[in-house]
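@channel sequence for tomorrow's demo:
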Amino acid sequence: MYLFLIETVIISLSGVMAPGALSAVTVAHGSSKSNAGLRVALGHGFVEIPLILLVYFGASNVIQSDLFQGFTRCLGGIFMLWLAAKLLRESRGDSQLDEVNQSSIRAGIILSLGNPYFLVWWATVGTSLVFKAAEFGLLGLILFAICHWLCDLVWLWILSFLAYTSGDLLGGRFESIITIVS
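structure tokens (generated this afternoon):
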């Protein structure tokens, strides 16, 4: 089981460290709150843990279906375009942060639900990891979920901490770079 948990961490980091909306909002929130990444990860976990359980209890067929994938990509793509435009406007100072951006936990929930990459990752890579975890029984599933979520937690905390501490050194440049890359 130890090798599987190491594999879980390595594979999980491929999804966790990919630039995206969660990274961008974590850096944006982290510029004023060093622990914002912990809150974003908590919100993300509120979506991810039930999804892991759904896959474990048989919903993987629905998540992997062409209809679900197409719907997710279209809706998620529209959401991501809206979010990108919004972040660009806010980076220019054209608008105030709204409710989604005021709560790091809420941002983690909404951005996870609206991210097509997140659901595609779970329909493919994540599902195979859940099935492997199930080979070790309920304990394997629990340890898998903990290891995977800890990867999210640590990475998002690092991003928010760097955003918070780099404010003095780099001004808003770190946040701008991460927002553009994400």
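heads up for whoever presents: The longest helix spans residues 137-170.
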